[in-house]
Amino acid sequence: MNLIQEATLVAEKDLRIEIRSRVTAQQILPFGAVVLLLFAFALDPDRGVLRDVAPGLFWVTSLLAALLAVSRSFALEAEHGARDGLRLSGLDPAAVFLGKAAAITIELLVLEAMLSIGVVVLFDVALGSVLPLVLAAVLATVGVAATGTLYGALVASSGTRETLVPLLLLPVVSPVLLGATRAWESAIEGVTSEAWPWIGLLAVFAVLYMSIGTLAFGSLLEEA
């Protein structure tokens, strides 16, 4: 099998487990919805403020949900020696990284699609230019998934608990939060020319961490 086929195999394995366990649908998605509801209740007295801060609140909620998805992804490998089986499977470590990152990306994109509906309904936001919104969401999600996969493996290799993941991950993905929020603000306001530089930042971040993960995941997997 080539790299793409091996990565697809790993992604299908992770997604199949999530579909059967329904953790994303029954726990992570409700968590995101509850966070949005709390923001809506907290800022309800001024609907104008709620609409203005909607992009930032959406991406903060998405990042918090991403922490759960990343922790869940590596918790699966810790049970019944699954991590040893993955390491001894003969799969290219780069393919393992790409497959796990792809699975997390798909899970988060589905989650973000559902949360965006909640933002429109609860925050009274009219989505403007669709293309910048979608591109920013995809690139930001790829960047978060790649970074989460890399740092999740780092935590697993160090033998520490998954609770260390947020401490390591959140400062690193702060450019994603900034870029995605600014891109969404510009797209919602209809000023697409201001969105593209932020989308470029998201693209650079995604490519950077995808490259780092592809090169470094092998050593992390061996130490896990």
Characterization of this structure:
With 224 residues, the chain is mostly helical. α4 runs parallel beside α7, α6 crosses α7 and α7 packs parallel to α10. It contains 10 helices and no strands.
Helices and strands, with pairings:
Blueprint lengths: L2 H19 L1 H21 L3 H6 L1 H25 L3 H6 L5 H31 L6 H29 L5 H9 L1 H16 L2 H32 L1
Helix pairs in contact: 1-6, 2-4, 2-6, 4-6, 4-7, 4-8, 4-9, 6-7, 6-10, 7-8, 7-9, 7-10, 9-10
- Estimate nothing, just give the exact number of structural domains: 1
From the helix content, strand content and strand pairing, which structural class follows?
A: mainly alpha
Mean pLDDT: 83
Helix content: over 70%
Using the CA coordinates, give the radius of gyration. 18 Å
* Strand composition percent: under 5%
Low-pLDDT runs:
none
What is the 3D shape?
A: globular
User: How are helices and strands ordered from N to C?
Assistant: HHHHHHHHHH
| Number of DSSP strand runs | 0
